[in-house]
């Protein structure tokens, strides 16, 4: 143990390992475990080894050996071109500056991994911190000095476990997503749209809808999703910050961790993997987390609802557009196995639960003020509809209609408070001084005029 935690290097002493047989510990198993841990301690750092995530995800994404054929690329490029023309009639949000891509699963992993790291790092740090605390708090007094040198090792081991598990989740997710925006959050680089033909065939296998119609619908939806994030430059950071705000509040359930440690068998590492994958180490959400999750779900629903309405208008020429739209909505509501595994791993389900209500709101806004008036709501963050507007869009519609007619909006308490603040009337005391000044002015009016104040 001293050699392991002290980083002295070299293989464990075979004679010392042989003496472990009297303790009912298999020396061969212990030698393997200690060699692996020693290597991790010597080469690792206190950060999360994201390269492990990348290698694991790419291994799964590329294991089928599927590539993009020339015919698939040509068909989807044509679908993107026609969908772009149709979107020009359905939205005032401008076209993308970059050409849409047809990519493999591996390319999707490479493109989206930076965002996955940003989203998962708070939870990964929480797990590694919990492992370190559990080690230091439960060690016997005579081993405290030894354990203090093991903090870096435990952080490395915990980070490696999480990074490996995240790699499996992202790799499996690459086998489910059909397009870059399929998960709902901005995973692709800013202003980029993409379709994965390897998964496109699976998406339409049981729908009995011609592939060309499916391709046009998926292309229009992906372009609309990428367009809104490119147009509203603030939106990407807004979504990511809300996700990370939720993730930073997640802490590992130390009781569950301790229970797992008491029955953990090093020869059966699958139990630890299952605990991470099932979310058993994450405690129930707090009220603050539920509120943060509700805000995030409303935000995602607002984005997806707009994408839904714009795609519906752009693809109205397709005979099967309504059936495809319903299939997409159900698919987004349920999620695939990898998406559910991601929710267990980081404690977050990225599903727009109120997408239908949000789409109904955007439809009402479109009918009331037109395409340009609707899309102008993405110009600034304070113009974007909120949860109350999704519940009842009538007030939002009334405000937009009044603005379109050039009418002043109805004043409310917030308007009055803001006006007082800007005019310098911060309190009753200042107002009283102002009244006294006005009285003095009245008393000094004369041939020479009011006295300067």
Q: Indicate the radius of gyration in whole angstroms.
A: 29 Å
Mean pLDDT: 77
Strand content: under 5%
Tally of alpha and pi helices: 21
Measured between the Cα atoms of the first and last residue, the distance is: 82 Å
Which runs of at least 5 residues are low in confidence (pLDDT < 50)?
426-453
Number of strands: 2
Structural class category: mainly alpha
Specify the biggest β-sheet: 2 strands, parallel
Order of helices and strands: HHHHHEHHHEHHHHHHHHHHHHH
Helical content, roughly?
A: 55-70%
Q: What topology, given as strand order, has the largest sheet?
A: 1-2
Shape: flat
What does it look like?
There is one protein chain. With 453 residues, the chain is mainly α. Helices cover 66% and strands 1% of the residues. Helix 5 crosses helix 14 and helix 10 packs across helix 14. The protein is flat and about 85 Å long.
């Amino acid at each position: 143990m001293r050699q392991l935690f002290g980083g002295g290097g070299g293989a464990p002493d075979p004679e010392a390992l042989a003496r472990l047989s009297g303790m009912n510990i298999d020396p061969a198993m212990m030698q393997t475990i200690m060699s692996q841990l020693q290597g991790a301690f010597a080469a690792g750092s206190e950060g999360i080894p994201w390269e492990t995530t990348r290698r694991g995800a790419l291994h799964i994404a590329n294991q089928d050996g599927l590539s993009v054929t020339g015919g698939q690329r040509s068909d989807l490029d044509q679908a993107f071109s026609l969908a772009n023309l149709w979107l020009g009639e359905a939205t005032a949000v401008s076209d993308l500056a970059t050409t849409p891509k047809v990519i493999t699963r591996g390319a999707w992993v490479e493109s989206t991994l930076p965002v996955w790291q940003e989203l998962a790092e708070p939870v990964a740090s929480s797990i590694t911190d919990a492992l370190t605390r559990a080690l230091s708090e439960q060690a016997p007094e005579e081993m405290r000095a030894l354990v203090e040198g093991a903090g870096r090792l435990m952080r490395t081991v915990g980070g490696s476990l999480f990074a490996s598990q995240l790699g499996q989740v992202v790799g499996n997710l690459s086998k489910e997503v059909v397009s870059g925006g399929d998960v709902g959050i901005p995973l692709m680089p800013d202003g980029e749209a993409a379709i994965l033909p390897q998964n496109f065939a699976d998406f339409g296998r049981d729908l009995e809808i011609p592939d060309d119609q499916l391709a046009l619908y998926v292309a229009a939806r992906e372009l609309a999703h990428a367009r809104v994030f490119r147009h509203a430059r603030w939106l990407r950071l807004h979504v990511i910050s809300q996700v990370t705000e939720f993730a930073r509040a997640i802490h590992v359930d130390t009781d569950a961790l301790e229970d797992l440690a008491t029955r953990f068998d090093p020869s059966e590492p699958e139990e630890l993997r299952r605990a991470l994958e099932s979310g058993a180490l994450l405690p129930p959400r707090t009220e603050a987390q539920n509120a943060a999750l509700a805000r995030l779900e409303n935000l995602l629903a607002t984005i997806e609802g707009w994408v839904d309405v714009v795609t519906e208008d752009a693809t109205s020429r397709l005979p099967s557009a309504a059936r495809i739209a319903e299939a997409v909505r159900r698919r987004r509501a349920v999620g695939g196995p990898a998406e559910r595994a991601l929710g267990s791993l980081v404690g977050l389900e990225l599903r727009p639960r109120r997408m239908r209500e949000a789409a109904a709101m955007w439809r009402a806004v479109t009918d009331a003020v037109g395409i340009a008036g609707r899309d102008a709501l993405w110009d600034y963050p304070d113009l974007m509809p909120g949860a109350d507007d999704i519940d009842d869009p009538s007030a939002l519609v009334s405000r937009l209609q009044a603005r379109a007619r050039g009418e002043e909006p109805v004043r409310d308490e917030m308007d009055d408070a803001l006006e007082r603040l800007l005019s310098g009337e911060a309190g009753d005391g200042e107002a009283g001084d102002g009244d006294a000044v006005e009285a003095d002015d009245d008393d000094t009016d004369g041939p020479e005029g009011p006295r300067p104040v």
